[in-house]
C-alpha cells in the first residue's frame, strides 16, 4: 500500500504539530477526498499520542475543502489511558481550518474474536464479474482521480435493490492490504447512495463518524452504502464494510448536505 | 420541560466561555448521564454561534466522568455559514477535561418533509401497558436517579426479539415536549442493549454521535436500541428514535467499552 501510505504521511513540524502534503491523486473533482483527509489526521493522532497503534473511532466535521498541496495538522492529546487514548486533530491550510476530528485510539490486535454479531455480509456479485469504476465516467462532468489509485467495483445489477443502497468491492493495487488507517478512507470511498434514489446531486459531508472494529484480513473489502433518510437539504448514509473473511471491520455513518444537481 | 431546560442551562462566564451546574438528579450511579452532558455542550454551542437554533449533528468523546456540581464549558466556533455552522465545545471540571464534542448547527424548521425514508417505526407495546422503569430496580446495586425525571417504558416482552435489541418509550413529565437539544439526551437515555445478550456489565461510552433529523411532535418518543457487534472489550450501539407522528427524529450510534460485571 505504498501509494496510500505515502500519500497520507505526516512529518513533525518541530513545534508539536505535523506537516502533510495533500496528494492531487487522491481527489474527487480536484478536491482531496474526505476519508483521505481523515486518514491523515489519524496518522498524526497516532504519532502524537504514542500510546496505541489504531483508530477505534474517528468523528470529523468538514469545514472547508482544502486544495492539493501543503497542509498543517495540529493535535491535542485529550486523554491517555491503558486501553484507549483520545485525541483531537485539526487540518488547516493557509490558516484556514478545513477539518477537525476526535479520535479514540486503541489496539485492535487485542480486540479478540466477536462474542456476538448482528451484521451478516450482504450478497455482492463476484469481484471478477464487475468492472472497476473509471475515473471519468461517461456522461458525467466530474473527474474522480482517486479511482486510479484503487479498485472500486460496484454491483450495478443490485443497485437500488433495496432502494437507497449500493454494494460492491474495494481493493488496493499490487496486493497491498488494508489497515485501520486506510479503512477510514474506505468508509468514504463509495459514491453517495442518493444516486440510487434518482439524484446525482452533490452530497458534501458535514459529519463523518467511523468505527474500526477489527484488523482486516488480506484481500478486498465488501462494502454496503445505504441512505436512510433524505430530507430537503440533508441525507445520512451508513457505510458498513466486511473483510475477505466476512468479518465486520468498519461501521460508519455520515450526515451530508444534499443539493439537487442542476439539470 | 422546565426540569431538563433548567438542568442544562449555561451562563456566559464573561470570558468567552460558559458556566454550567451539573444536576445531581440527571445521573446514573451518581454520575451525570452522557447524553445530558452532550445537551449542555449543545446549548453552549448554539449560544456561542448565535447563527442557528438546532444541533443537526453532535459527536462527542467521553474522557473522564464529572461529578454533579459546577463545570465550565469552553467553545470554539469553527465555521459559520448560511445553512450550517460548526462548533467545538469542551466540558471541564476543576481543570480536568471531561467531554469534548463537535457540532453542526442548523435550522430544522427548514428541513421540510422527508423526500425518502427507509426506517419504519418498529412495533412497541402500547405505552399504558408498560411500567415506567424505576430508579432503583430490584436486585441491582445501581441507582439511576435520572429515571425519576422522565418516564422510560421498556417493552420487556419484546426484549431480545430480535437478539441485541430493546424497544420502548420516553416521555417527559407534565406534558413537556421534546426539542432538538433534549433529543441529544434521549439518544443516550436507554439501557445498554448488551443486557439483552445476557450481560449486565458496564458499558461506559467512548464516542457518541447523534444526528437530529426533525423537530419532534408533541408526545412520547419511540426508541429502538440495538447492539450490532460485541467484541472482547468494545460494543457499538445504534439508537433510533421516532416521534409520536412516526417520523424519524434521531439517528445515533455509540462505541462503548465493555466490561463484564463481576458476578
Give a verbal description of the structure.
The structure is a homodimer of 263-residue chains. By secondary structure, chain A is mainly beta. Chain A has 2 domains: 2-107, Acyl-CoA thioesterase, double hotdog domain (Porin, Beta Barrel), CATH 2.40.160; 139-257, Porin, CATH 2.40.160. Helix content of chain A is 11%, strand content 39%. A 12-stranded antiparallel beta sheet of chain A has the order 1-2-6-7-8-5-12-15-14-13-11-10, covered by helices on one side. In chain A, strands 3-4 form a two-stranded antiparallel sheet. In chain A, helix 2 (34-49) packs antiparallel against helix 3. Chain A is globular. The termini of chain A are far apart.
Q: Counting H and I runs of at least 4 residues, what is the number of helices of chain A? A: 3
Tell me which CATH architecture of the largest domain in chain A applies here: Beta Barrel
Query: What is the tally of beta strands of chain A?
Result: 15
Task: Give the N-to-C terminal Cα separation of chain A.
Answer: 39 Å
Q: How many distinct domains of chain A?
A: 2
Uncertain residue segments of chain A:
none
Q: Fraction of residues of chain A in helices?
A: 10-25%
Please outline what is shown here.
With 263 residues, chain A is mainly beta. The first copy, chain A, has three helices and 15 strands.
Question: Any descriptors?
Answer:
homodimer; mainly beta; 15 strands; Porin; 263 residues; two-stranded antiparallel ribbon; twelve-stranded antiparallel sheet; 2 domains; 3 helices
